[in-house]
Each structure stands twice: as C-alpha cells, then as structure tokens.
Amino acid sequence: MFKEFREFALRGSVVDMAVGIIIGAAFGTIVTSLVADVLMPPIGLLLGKVDFANLYVLLTAGQTPGPYASLAAAQQAGAVTLNYGAFINKIISFLIVAFALFLMIRSMNRMKRKAEAPAPAPTTKECPFCATAVPLKAVRCPHCTSELAK
Questions:
Q1: Scanning 4, 17, 60, 117, which has its CA 20 to 30 A from the CA of 110?
Q2: How far apart are CA 62 and CA 71, in angstroms?
Q3: What pTM does this model have?
Q4: Neighbour-count burial of 66, counting CB atoms closer than 10 A to its CB (0-12 exposed, 13-18 middle, 19+ buried)
C-alpha cells in the first residue's frame, strides 16, 4: 500500500499540484497584505478615515459594557460582533486573486492557441524526379521539365 501511495504522490501531476498550492498560498498572503496594507488605508481615508478592519456591528456586549474603541477592544471584552469590515477586506482580496488568475489563465490559453494553430496549407509539391519544390498547379517541373501528375 505504501508503494502505491508513493507512486501516486510522485506522479508529475500531483507534484505540480503541490507546487501550485504552495505558490498559491504565498500569493494569497501577498494579496492579503496588498489589500490590508496598501489598498484599504487610502480607500478608508477617502471615505472619512475609516479602517475597514475595525468595522463591526455589536450583537451582544461583553463583560464590560460598550461602546468599544475598536474591534480588538470589543473582542477582548468578550463581546459578540459581526465583523463586516474584515469581510469586505476578504472580498477585495478574493477579487484581486480571481482577476490575477484570470489574467494568467487567459495568457496561457493564448499561448496554447498559438502553439496549436493549424499549419498553413501547402503551396508547393515535390517533383518526384528531381525532388525540387514546384507550385501545386504546375503540370511540368520547371527544373527537369518532367510531366507531373495532378
């Protein structure tokens, strides 16, 4: 059973998939940082100095009653919160990752289409007598003057 598992795990497609998952996880952390640290602060500033990570709805107050200065303070007090700001950040992260994957797959499909493009139709044929290239419509070889079959 171990031998079968090893053969399965070392197949090319499984190894490629593992590499893809690892690179995808690393790409996900980069995108998360891009959204949280680069995109959302200016957007929050434009919307009136709002930190999206701290947007929440208080469902139930914690051990110490609110209002709370931040989401971290509410959670530390044991309050039950609905963290819609974090959800907005995750949606933006997802959209960026999905768009990046779309661009990557689109370019891969273009390259694949170019590689699989059908060869152009031949415009010449070979003379069976002298082995030179002759136009398809020719009935005589211009080099050896042999009659060619159509």
A1: 17
A2: 12
A3: 0.57
A4: middle
Size (the chain), residues: 150
98 and 67 within one domain: no
* DSSP run (H or E) holding 8: helix 2-9
- d(Cα 71, Cα 56) in Å, to the nearest integer? 7
Residues 74, 12, single domain; the answer is no
Residues 7 and 76 reside in one and the same domain: no
| Domain identity same for 42 and 25 | yes
Do 43 and 98 reside in the same domain of the chain? yes
Query: What are 75-111's pLDDT values in tens digits?
Result: 888 888 999 888 888 888 788 878 887 888 898 888 8
Query: Cα–Cα–Cα angle for 103, 106, 107, nearest 5°?
Result: 85
* 68/96 same-domain check: no
**Residue-wise pLDDT tens digits, 106-137:** 988 888 888 877 888 888 999 988 999 999 88
